[in-house]
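Lay summary. Proteins are chains of building blocks that fold into shapes, and those shapes determine what they do. In this project we predict the shape from the chain. Here is one chain we studied, written as its sequence of building blocks.
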Amino acid sequence: MTRTSSPRRGLSDSNLSGFRQIVEKMASTARAVGIDLGTTYSCVSVWRNGAPEILADAHGNRVQPSYVAFTAEQRLIGEPALAQCGLNPRNTVFDAKRLIGREFSDPALQADMEFWPFIVKADENNRPVVEVEYKSSLHDFKPEEISAMILGKLKEVAEHNLGVPITKAVITVPAYFNDSQRQATKDAGAIAGLEVLRIINEPTAAAIAYGLDTMKPARVESSEDEAEVATTEKRVLVFDLGGGTFDVSLLSMDEGVLEVKATSGDTHLGGEDFDDRLCHHLATAFEEANPDLEGFRTDARAMRRLRTAAERAKRLLSAATEASVQVDAIFGGIDLNMTVSRATFEAISADLFERIITPVQQVLDDASTNKADIDEIVLVGGSTRIPKVQELLKEFFDGKQLCHGVNPDEVVAMGAAVQAALLAPEEETGEIVIQDERIKDLVLLDVTPLSLGLQTAGGVMQVMIPRNTTIPTRAQKMFSTAVENQSEVLIQVFEGERAKTGENHKLGTFEMTGIAPAPARHPKIQVTFEIDVNGILTVWADNASNGKRERITIDADKGLLTEEQIEEALRTAERFREEDQEFLRKMEARNSLETYAYSMKTAIYRKGKELSTAEKDILLKGITEALGWLEQHHEAQLEEVKAKQQELEGILRPLTV
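And here is the predicted shape, written in a compact code that computers can read:
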């Protein structure tokens, strides 16, 4: 094929040189984009011409399938990868978001593997890797690498549209992603050649985009030049049910401040799970109709074709009461031809639908908010199109109308684009590109989803940062040693809602050493917990006596809480609330007895000249016996501990008279 060039029109050499200078100047100014890295679909947006704009690829596709395929000749990403997955199922990778930042032994991941045609195995650190055949040889890819390929595709789409290099991005994650998953997402961005300006929660990003049409300038000037309040607080519940994750966040919008009041969710609930149910139902019906066939479910190609048909039927059932499922020669030369009703789909997915209401109630409870106080319910994520989801949500809110004014597939990326423009000034001028009076001074206040703390004497969880605390945040507290002449302290950091640290999840540990010998409770150690805007936790301890500092940053290598453990921690906290309260009361009594014993021991030495040797021996013996009893009776009940303190007070009464 011969390529011909069209003649230049109206461009002299001098004009062409000027045009080149403009292009070079544009290229030197890096633009920041917002990216919604989804489980099943992803998209990229940029702030342009006074609004966030979704960027389409060369074929006009505004969202890209989160699929990566490997063939004997090339790697395919997005729509081309999805198009050939039926022919190449074992080397077509999807659902990377359900792999990222998790351990291979995670039960949820093991359950997912039953539905994946590609091979997932563990590396030396018990992290999942995907094995594919690429260019006639086997390769192992980490989930971060697969995600980076998708991010790279979105980066290319943005650069093609904007004509400038893209080096910076704001990437969204589910609000209930733990620190390990957030760190892994940042790593994926780095692999894709992107500086991740910030990781923000998907419901928060959606609220930003929604707020563009509802927020007004914070104040207006009256005729007498007096400032008048132009807006009032609006409470918005963002209900985000996507392809693989589910988040609910309650936010308040007031005068340019977007504050998250509470968040809850399930990082393993979404459209993929509904697909799994429908796929399993169809496979069972096919096997029952063809009992002589064996190996249907283990045929990766057949199951991939069935899954594609199941997903298509699920989409059709959002608009119709019945959907026809037809796959020619799906297995053994036999066609699959079935009809699925909406009622059947809802019945086989009943338990999944039940799971969507619990987080909604949890958010309202955590924010101390009534259903009637919610001004808007914003639907985000493609799975919110399912009629049963809308029906349950509307019923829960007593018939309140749901907001359909935003595109559920694109609103998250648009909100991320707003945040990206706010965070990335123009390189030439250093000025922020957004001048929109509605949001140029927008302040985002997000929250942490679980309580963070450390272990104190008796295995008690000392909460430093309660769940749903606005971030970024910092908390400090002074601690001391538990025994005399203690030279080092092991600081153990936990995440969870239980009173006992043993029933929460350990995030990491570090030691404070070099403590000068001193009586128990005399050394002063200040512990600080700090969470940055990305939700990353750093903990450090300062020894007041020598100025020494030890610290730890909780990162992906520390094995943080999985989403299943987060959900279980919250459920267990509710179920055993009374047990926790009883345990706390008991530990408070133990600490009270121990503190009283040590303080009286100090008083004895201070009053040494006023007491005879015999008196000192009697008092010290009583204290020693009480402390020994505490050491030997860790399981003593509350009343027993109180009785022991009363006994000691009786012995030491002469000292306090």
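What the prediction tells us: The chain has five domains: 20-205+412-437, 206-268+356-409, 271-351, 448-575, 577-656.
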